[in-house]
Amino acid sequence: MSDGTERAALGYEHTLMFGQYREDLGEYAKLEALRVKSLEKLRKKEEKRRQKELKPYRNAIHRK
């Protein structure tokens, strides 16, 4: 194989590898966004539940 052909083959291989990397990175980003969104939703739900459980503050005038 000549040096030019070998270089062209390597360039093509790098292009394929980069394309695969981009696809994998895109898929990872989608999954990570879904995970973060679901965690945020769960956090908000827990915060609402916690706020419901807390008794409202009553100052001395209202306690009697």
TrEMBL record:
Residues 44-64 are annotated as: Disordered. Residues 44-56 have a biased composition (Basic and acidic residues). This is Chloride channel protein 2. The lineage of its organism: Eukaryota, Metazoa, Ecdysozoa, Arthropoda, Chelicerata.
